[in-house]
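One-letter codes give the sequence; backbone shape is given numerically. An example follows:

. . .
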Amino acid sequence: MRREILIDAYNVIFADARLGPLVRRDPERAREQFLALVVQRMPADGSRGIVVFDSTRDPRPTTETGRANTSYARGLQIVFARETADTWIQEHIRNHADASQLTVVTSDREILATARAHGAAILRVSDFLQLAARRHERARGVRDNEKPQHTSRKEIEEMEKLFEEPRSDEDS
């Protein structure tokens, strides 16, 4: 069974310093930027991401059965819950065949309690938002470790020759 990552969308959006203010001015743009952020933070292990929005915050009308899931990218699904996102996420956790295969991204206390009670993993919103910075730091650390720690004598001699040679008129 493939791991699922359930994301309480507006819980994350309002916690983000850039997206929180944007969602009040331009909700559609904030959602698009948020989805791009989620795609960047999804693990490369084939986990399935499910982003859950409250449909009550979406200006488009809901249907009797709620909105259909829409594929976005890299296994990411977007759900506009007919009920609240909190209710949808809690029901999904309760009804999942193996909740230990779930990771829930939220800071909502009730969702956290449900996740703990059913054995789902928890990733707090603040930690989720810092994932990209941590990945960038790790990548930079790898790059820095790949750089030579010192310059060899041969490299120094080559540089000396290069900088000692007089420039010809064609070079100016």
